[in-house]
TrEMBL record:
Name of the protein: RNA-binding Zn ribbon-like protein
InterPro entries named among the record's database cross-references: ABATE (IPR010852), ABATE_dom_sf (IPR023286), Znf_CGNR (IPR021005)
Domain of life: Bacteria
Domain Zinc finger CGNR: 141-184
Organism name: Streptomyces iranensis
Amino acid sequence: MLINHDTRCALDAVVDLVNTAPEGADKDDLADVAALRRFVERNDISDIGTLGERDLTAVRAVRARFAEVFAAAGNEAAARRTAELLNAMIAAAGTTPRLTDHDDYDWHVHYFAPGASLADHLTADCGMALAFLVVGGERERLRRCEAPDCRHAFVDLSRNRSRRYCDSRTCGNRLHVAAYRARRREAAS
């Protein structure tokens, strides 16, 4: 599947957004407006003005909806639910496709209206990126890490769709080392 630069950036942003949610005993990585500003900077999100508490509340609500999309993505019975969620989110954001070139990027499409709130911006651009995966028959690429103590969201862009962990260097390695040690203990018994 060919994924252009903008779609890849939007997929990275939605994964980062979903992964800011607290899991279990974890803290909320969008605890305040300063954390929201860091999220915007980390994901190089353009056309964002001054952020406030309303933005933080709205982005947290968007985050919860995107988490629902990832939860429904792998389940074939939930395919219609994924489409309904994305349709509702994209419509509510007032999607307004427009061509633009900025920040040394060539021509590309933004799906949010000029002056849109951060929540609408994320909903429109990230929602469209996820919609492209659904349309392309690639919904199963939206996953959660299989490490039992992680469960972070990720988009599997591997050629053969075989990625199981959000980060093979941390989660994947940790589980492989634990399995190796368990086999060694068993063999030594």
